[in-house]
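Morning!

As promised:
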Amino acid sequence: MTLFYHELKQGRLALLIWSGIVAGMLAVCILIYPEMARQMEEVSGMFAEMGSFSAAFGMDRINFGEFIGFFGVECGNILGLGGGFFAAFVGSAALAKEEKEHTAEFLLTHPISRQSVVLQKFMGVLLQIAALNLVAVCVSVLSALVVGERPEPKLFSLLFAAYILLQIEIASICFGVSAFCSRGASGIGLGLAALFYFLNLIANLSEGAEFLKYLTPFGYAESADLIERGGINPQYLAVGLLLAAAGVLLAFVRYQRKDIL
Amino acid sequence: MNVIELTALTKYYGKARGIIDLNLAVKEGDFFGFIGPNGAGKSTSIRILLGLIAPTSGTVQVFGRKQKEQPRELLKQIGYMPSEASFYPNMRVEEVLRFSAGLRGCDCRAEAEQLLSRLDLDPKKKIRALSLGNRKKVSIVCALQHQPRLCVLDEPTSGLDPLMQREFYAILKERNQQGTTIFLSSHVLSEVQRYCSHAAIIRKGRIVAADEVRKLGYTGAKRVVLRGVEEPPQLEQIKDVVKSDGAVSFLYSGGSGALLQALAAMPVLDVTIGEPDLEEIFLHYYGEERANDAFLS
C-alpha cells in the first residue's frame, strides 16, 4: 500500500483546494436559500417563461419552493460539475502524470507489478472522490441546519449517491484515458467531463436526443429525475457502470503492455 | 553464472531501430562497461533488461530466470540508476528514499545514511531545489541503499563533479568487491577503461565487440608518436594522424620492420610506441564514420 499512501499524499493539496471550492459553493448556495424562498413566486414565474432553457436544467419538473428542489438543481449542478471536473482531473492524471513528469521510470524499476500500480492508483482516486464528497455532505448538512432546513434523509442521500456514482464513472473513464496518454490526459479528461454535461443538456432539450442519456453519467444524476422517481434510472446507471468498468479494465490492460520510454 | 543474458534481443520503435539481434552475457561479480555513443541502443537495452519496454523479439534472463516471468522478484535484487534522474519535485530527499525503501519493503535507513554522508547530500532538501548533480546523488542512494546483487547504471557520472565521480566509483568498487555485479553504460571511455574488467561496444543497435577491457585494447594497432617531424612515414597501414607543433601521432597496424625502416630514414628526435587507449579502439570499431562529438567529449 506504499503507493496508495503516496498517491494520497501527492494529491492532498489539490483535494483540499477542490473540496474547499465545492463545499464553499454549496454552503453559499444553501445559505442564500431563505432569501430565494421568499422570492419563489417571482422565480417560479420566471422559470416557467424560460421554456426549453428550464427543461435543459430539469427546472420545469421540480418544485423550487421546497428546499430539496432548490438543493437538487443548484447544489446538484455544483456537485455534478465541480465534483465531475475533480473526478476527471484526478482520474486522468493518475497514471499519465508519472510519464509526463518522468517518474514512471523510477516507480516501475521497483519491485511492484504494473497491476498493483494501477490498482493502488485507482484506489487513491476513489478515496479522493470519497473525501471530497464527505466534506460536501458535512458542509451541506451543516449549512441546511444553519438556515433551519431539515432535508429529507432519503432524497438527500439519493442525490449524493447519484453524484458520487457520476464522479466515479467520470474518474474511471478518465483513468482509462490516463493509461493511453502520457501528455494531455488532463485536458482530455476535463473535456470529456464537459462533453458529458452538455450531452445531458441536449438530451433534455430534444426528445430525439434522449438516447444520449445512456452515454452520459449526467443522465442518471439528474436531480429532477431523481426527486421525481425517488431513485436512479437503472438502465442509465447500468450503462454508466459498464462504461466505468470498461475504463478501469482498459487501464489495466493497456498499462500492463505499455512501453515506458 | 551469468547474471545478465540477453539473447537475440531486438527492439524496433515502429520503423525506427532500437537494437538488433543483440547478444550479451555478464557474469556474476563482474564490473561491466557498456560503451557506445548517444543513440547506439544502450538505454534501450537497459530498459528492456528492467522490463520498462518490451522487446520486439529475443529473451532476457537475469540471475538465470526469464525477466518476463518474474519481474518483481528480479527487481528486488536490482538497483537502477537512470541517465536522467527524475523524482517527485515536491518531496524531500529523505521522503524519496523512504518511498523507494517502502516499495522494496525493506528498512534501508542505516545504509542510506551512510551513502548520504559519503555523497555529502542533505536529506532535508526538497527535490525541486536540487541541482542535476545532487539529483544524481539521490539516484545513487536509491540504487544502492537496499544493497542489490546487481547494479544497473545508465550514464551514471554525467552531472557529477570529478570529486563526486571518484567517491561514486570508490563506492561501486567496494560493492563489487563484496560481490555485487556492476553493469554500467557510458560514453566516457576513460572511466570504463579505469574501472571495468569487461566491456561491450554497441554500434547502431548491434554489439560490435565484447571482451575483457584489456583484450579489447589489443587490436594489433600501435599508437606511435614522433617528435622532430611533422609528417608520418609513407606507409599504408597508418590512420588517425594527429599533427601538432613539432610532433605527429598516428595509429599503425603494419609490421614493425617496415615502420623501423621508414623511421630510420627520417630526422626523428624521439619515438614513443604504445598501446592505443579505448577511445582509439572505439574509433577502430567505428571505422570511417568515427564517433560522434558527444562520445569523444
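Confidence is low (pLDDT under 50) at residues 291-297 of chain B.

Hope this helps with the figure draft.
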